[in-house]
Design brief:
This protein has helices at about 1-25, 45-60, 75-85, 100-110, 115-120, 130-135, 160-165, 175-185, 200-225, 235-245, 260-270, 280-285, 320-330, 335-345, 360-370, 385-405, 405-420, 420-425, 425-430; strands spanning about 35, 65, 95, 135-140, 140, 145, 150, 155-160, 190-195, 270-275, 295-300, 305-310, 310-315, 375. The chain is of the alpha/beta class. The protein has a five-stranded mixed beta sheet, with helices on one face. Strands 9-10-8-11 form a four-stranded mixed beta sheet. The model is unreliable at about 1-25 (pLDDT under 50).
Length: about 425
């Protein structure tokens, strides 16, 4: 009796010890890191992501943030590194992404996981303009959390130069062209329009502008998703002619400049105006330029809000899923959105942060307009066009800047749209 009792006690102790030991040796390693890929390395954008890091670090003091920033805004370099890491199955915990076709390509390749629960928990869909859901939700699922809304139909200008030439800020394409002509006449040493095409992506922003101001928002959406007959559409030809008319007024050494270096041409007075998204505002504020004194901005056309969202995507098989999910949860809060956007130049994508938190008129206007005007997404960063078509059109437009050949550009674009099956690959955009 006594013997079997001792045997049972030994067995129980052994079993307890075994499980205690196995739970130690087989436990998941604790998540010590949070690995993020982003390309916010220029003035303004760097400080903005740092504000989020600070907030995250307060929530998770024990976690080490590992960032892999790659210099050069617009992200062409980072995207190449990211793609090879995703393909090799070594994803970061999150990465800076956009929406629409830019995100869909990753989803179709099986690189992203669903984060519906994070959106539901934060009541996120009710807090954003429905137009965003169209390009962030795929087959009824979401794979990222957006942190902002960048307006891109802004024309930034050097106030002093425009005042000296005696012109008011243009509000239409025709007024823009006229302003270019007058500036060139009055101040031949200045380039009326700044541009930095060292990263070709910025040329697509001018393309978006002529599509939108020539054909209006419906035409714009159709053209960027391949639903027009590029070769024969008279509105498309007119848009390309209007693009060509601007080329002689563009800063001639644009191929040597990044977007922020081109922005600086307004500070030095080498250029008068700059067609660019409001990350430029973050940059101007970071270099101490004063709104309404050193620079100002005008929206063209004034009755449309065009732009895109920066998002944090959730890759499949991330090394630190809890840390990644906590980052995304944090980004749904009004506090994180406000802290980021006050520095970034954009506005919060959530509508529960009032427009009057912004100290300058541009963001107050952007936040108000986003809630009231017709809104469209950018062709490239807004993911209206596919990355395959975008890569071709970037080359075509960069050539166009040099040869100004409207017919050749139209033919090349039509061929690229066909070759890359633009209309077919964008059909999801038109599904109800
Ligand atoms: C865009 C991005 C912005 C801004 C810009 C320049 O793609 O959405 O957040 O940073 O590039 O780097």
């Amino acid at each position: 009796m006594r013997k079997s009792y001792t045997f049972m006690v030994v067995m129980v102790l052994f079993t307890v010890a075994f499980f205690a030991f196995s739970s130690v040796s087989f436990a998941q390693p604790s998540e010590k890191e949070f690995i993020i890929f982003h390309y916010w390395t220029a003035g303004g954008e760097k400080e903005a992501i740092n504000a989020l890091f600070e907030m995250y670090q307060e929530r998770n003091p024990e976690v080490k943030i590992v960032e892999n920033p790659v210099a050069g805004g617009g992200g062409e370099t980072m995207l190449a590194v990211l793609m090879s890491n995703l393909a090799a199955g070594i994803p970061p915990d999150t990465f800076q992404d956009h929406q629409g076709n830019q995100q869909k390509d990753y989803i179709d390749a099986g690189y992203l996981d669903i984060v519906d629960d994070i959106w539901i928990e934060a009541n996120f869909e009710e807090r954003i303009n429905p137009m965003w859901t169209k390009t962030l939700k795929f087959s009824d699922h979401v794979y990222s959390v957006p942190i902002n809304a960048h307006r891109t139909n802004w024309l930034w200008y050097n106030k002093k130069v425009l005042d000296e030439v005696g012109i008011k800020a243009p509000e239409t394409y025709d007024e823009l062209l006229e302003a270019c002509q007058k500036i060139k006449e009055a101040k031949p040493e200045i380039s009326p329009l700044a541009l930095g095409s060292r990263e070709k992506v910025w040329v697509t922003y001018l393309y978006d502008m002529v599509l939108l101001t020539t054909g209006g928002p419906d035409f714009y959406e159709k053209a960027n998703t391949g639903r027009i007959d590029f070769l024969n559409d008279p509105t498309f030809r007119q848009a390309m002619e209007r693009f060509a008319a601007l080329i002689p007024y563009i800063y001639p050494w644009h191929a040597t400049k990044s977007w922020d270096e081109a922005a600086a041409l307004l500070k030095t007075g080498e250029s008068a105006m700059y067609w660019m998204g409001d990350w430029v505002l973050g940059y101007y504020l970071s270099i101490g330029m004063e709104p309404e004194v050193d620079f100002s901005a005008t929206a063209i056309p004034s009755d449309v809000w065009m732009g895109h969202a920066d998002t944090f995507a959730f890759p499949s098989g991330v090394p630190n899923p809890n840390n990644a999910r906590d980052w995304m949860r944090m980004c749904t809060t009004p506090e994180a959105q406000e802290a980021f956007n006050l520095i970034k130049g954009s506005v919060t994508i959530v509508n529960d942060v009032p427009p009057d938190v912004y100290p300058d008129p541009y963001r107050q206007r952007s936040a108000n307009d986003l809630g009231t005007l017709r809104a469209v997404c950018d062709g490239y960063h807004g993911g209206m066009m596919t990355p395959a078509f975008a890569s071709e059109i970037m080359d075509i437009l960069t050539r166009f800047l040099v040869d100004e050949e409207v017919d050749a550009a139209i033919e090349d674009i039509a061929r690229a749209a066909e070759r890359t099956q633009l209309a077919e690959d964008c059909s999801w955009f038109w599904e109800e």
